[in-house]
Amino acid sequence: MLKRTATYGFILLTIVGAIATTVDALVLTDEERLEAFTDKLSGDVTNQRIDEALDFADPDREPVELMSGRFHAYYDDGQGAELAERAHRELARLTGSEATMLQRSIHIDGNQALVAVRVRTRGGVVDARFDLKRHGDGWLIQRVRLQS
Q: Nearest-CA neighbor of 131 among 148, 147, 117?
């Protein structure tokens, strides 16, 4: 009788463990979502990769401020195409090269997040800071500051 109870207990524990593991694998944490964003900032520079990174920007839902050197722009309702065009134009000189992630930092504070990366490209080292805001289960870029 005791052996049977122990066997049932072990089976129940195994099932609960399997369910917990499956749920953990299916549910993305905020940190994992933001790590996925930073992953799009390194590797081969292609138009597709730029578009994937732009998936985190939606000026219709969250205005985006872009600062780089003397350049400063603000994109909001209906200006998603302009933001995408600007990103593609600025990164065109790097297309075909590779961006190597040197450092990355992710800090989450409630509904706000700060992602800072240092990336090496053929044009040199670029420090980028992204301020993001939670929207539902995802994150959208509010501000981008670039320094090279």
A: 117
d(CA 21, CA 24): 5
Both structure tokens of 15: 């099932």
Strands 98-109 and 43-44 turn out to be antiparallel
pLDDT digits (tens, 9 = 90+) for 30-66: 889 888 888 887 788 888 888 888 888 899 999 999 8
**Which residue, 77, 78, 74, 95, is CA-closest to 142?**
74
Q: 128 φ, ψ to 5°?
A: -130, 140
Tally Cβ neighbours within 10 Å of residue 70. 5
Please report, for residues 14, 29, 106, 143, the alpha-carbon distance to residue 21 in angstroms, rounded to integers and kept in the order given: 10, 14, 25, 36
pTM of the model: 0.75
* DSSP classification of residue 93: G
